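WARN retry 2 of 3 for item q-0093 after timeout on previous attempt; input resubmitted unchanged.
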Amino acid sequence: MRWHMFSEELVTVGRIVGAHGIKGELRLLPLTDFPERFKDMDYLDVYRPNGSFWCRLTINSIREHVGKGQFIVGVDEIVDRDAAESLRGGLVMVRPQERVELPDGFYWIDDLLGLTVVDCDTGNNLGTLVEIMSTGSNDVYVVETEKGKRHMLPAISEVVKEINIDNGFVRVHLLEGLWE
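OK item q-0093 returned
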């Protein structure tokens, strides 16, 4: 068996939360905004909570666990409840290129972090996007200046004017009183 730690590039999309029934089916909790992705997957790469690779499981059946927000997954490698239960806590991870393709105007958080934030009115470099906070109504971008001071900008169309992942910047319009 080969052992390796997951790199920061892997993305967690689910967690095995236990066994279902006596035939070795797994209860899988989606940790993604796109749980339907599991219906198109052929296998699950499972990692231990400490980051080490655990196993690859070949999916032979998958169905929604109605009302639970989970999937019931049958795999070729597991045929009894004890073996399924032993995988409890395992994290299902994928490479970034295996993520669901987002519609235009939507971005992965890890693609935004580290972008340079530029004032579109003055052209000044305001700092680096270091954190994205989800508030419910809209996200908030946390921008850190070169001096280490942090400012919060609402991720709304009146403020965020352009996101350019390829060239590494976000252009923003600072509303009055927003940067003080």
